[in-house]
Amino acid sequence: MRRSKHFLCALALVLGITGALGAAGRKATPGIERSKFGKMADGQTIDLYTLTNSSGMRVGITNYGGRVVSILAPDWQGRTADVVLGFDDLDGYLGDNPYFGALVGRYANRIAKAKFTLDGVEYKLAPNDGPNTLHGGLKGFDKVVWTEQEIAKDHSVLELSYLSKDGEEGYPGNLSVKVVYTLTDKNELWIDYTATTDKPTVLNLTNHSYFNLAGEGKGDILQHEMMVNADRFTPIDASLIPTGELRSVEGTPFDFCKPTAIGARINGGDEQLKLGRGYDHNFVLNRTGHGLTLAARVTEPGSGRVLEVLTTQPGIQLYTGNFLDGTVRGKGGKVYNYRFAFCLETQHFPDSPNQPGFPSAELKPGQTYHEITIYKFSTTR
Ligand code: GLA
After folding, report:
1. Of these residues, 135, 345, 348, 371, which one is catalytic?
2. Is 342 in the pocket of ligand 1 (CB under 6 A)?
3. What average pLDDT does the structure give for the chain?
4. How high is the pLDDT of residue 24?
5. Which helix (H) or strand (E) holds 133?
6. pLDDT 10s digits, 80-125
7. Closest CA to 67 of 330, 351, 301
């Protein structure tokens, strides 16, 4: 009798704890699972990897374009929502879409007039954005199939690699790239990039996830409050190429040193915001040395979800979904309208290969490119 009373108490306690964990994020077994995501036109099977951590946060990644397909993050009450735009299956990603969740390379963002000179040799690239090249060219790293390393089921780690051949999209050198995605028990998604080359080349790798911390498809992101750890930004010309100036954010709508709603000044008639149709600008991160630094923090007041971005990179592109226009239908057929997401793309500055005043994006044989970016999720309350 006594024993069964104790048993019931223990059971109630366990159920209570599980219930509490259910509300605050399920206690789960960390690991990775592979499932089929679809087939390429040539019949090649593409996989979806689901990373889970101990608090039940889940991240879906496909080896097509190394794309982050979903991020299920808890709100302040433990209710999860998918906070990135994307599609339910591979076909969506094979169709027209603006780099949803993709690994972008060989050179993320723009290179002016689709050319650059390295060691006296001019290299011509594909002009796929007016006169400029954007995000690696016609078939960038976002549209190639990455090779996955063997997975260890009880580790929330996915390692992807890709060999970009000498001359691919006009870039010199065989470039061997490795990207490791890790989901930690602290609700951090680590993206660790390494690369080596056999000829001098230029390189700029990023991830192009579109975030909406209220949940994908749930309206625009203008109420999200953003802090960007940058005293300067790189103003652009009419084709969104940096002018070369590093301009102070002080007294401009680019001052996010104190948390400010993304939409507070976006339609205020600022010349730079008119050129970008909103924010589509690189910020010069405040940093000393090459270590991991807090680059940005974004809070969504309704859900209390917080995203922090830490990086080793010198810059970050804030893009406020200004080209989203409702023509793309995403997960569950949801319409992704104007400014329904923001991107925080950690990077070297756009057009660095043509801008002697910017940190160099060159990689030489014998050197190893190594950058880390962390997307960390938490809540305000
Ligand atoms: C980047 C660019 C934008 C736009 C998007 C994709 O963030 O800076 O101008 O091209 O990618 O639509």
Report:
1. 345
2. no
3. 93
4. 42
5. strand 133-134
6. 999 999 999 999 999 999 999 999 999 999 999 999 999 999 999 9
7. 330
Share above pLDDT 90 across residues of the chain, in percent, rounded to a whole number: 91
Q: Which of the two residues, 25 and 61, has the higher pLDDT score?
A: 61
Instruction: Decide: 46 in ligand 1 pocket, CB within 6 A.
Output: no
100, 142, 343, 345, best to mutate for ligand 1 pocket (most atoms within 8 Å of CB): 343
For a ligand 1 pocket test, name from 135, 208, 272 the mutation site with the most ligand atoms within 8 angstroms of its C-beta: 135
Q: Which amino acid is at 136?
A: G
Whose tokens are 């652009």? That residue is: 236
* pLDDT cut 70: percent of the chain above it: 93
Please state, in angstroms and rounded to a whole number, the distance separating the CA atoms of residues 327 and 330.
10
Residue 27: predicted pLDDT = 78
Number of neighbours of residue 20 by Cβ within 10 angstroms:
12
What pLDDT digit, counting tens, does each position of 2-55 carry?
Answer: 344 444 334 433 433 333 343 344 578 999 999 999 999 999 999 999 999 999
Dist. CA 287 → ligand 1 center (Å): 25
Active site residue 6: no
By DSSP bridging, strand 80-82 and strand 343-347 are unpaired
- Ligand 1 neighbour 280 (Cβ under 6 A): yes
- Report the C-alpha gap between 262 and 278 in whole angstroms: 10
Catalytic residue among 135, 168, 169, 208: 208
For residue 129, how far is its CA from the centre of ligand 1 (angstroms)?
10
- Is 250 catalytic? The answer is no
Structure token digits, residue 154? 């009880």
Q: Is 323 close to ligand 1, i.e. is its CB under 6 Å away?
A: yes
3-state secondary structure of 231: coil
Rounded CA Rg of the chain: 22
Question: Alpha helix (H) ranges present in the chain?
Answer: 2-24, 90-94, 271-276
Quote the tokens at residue 254. 């680019």
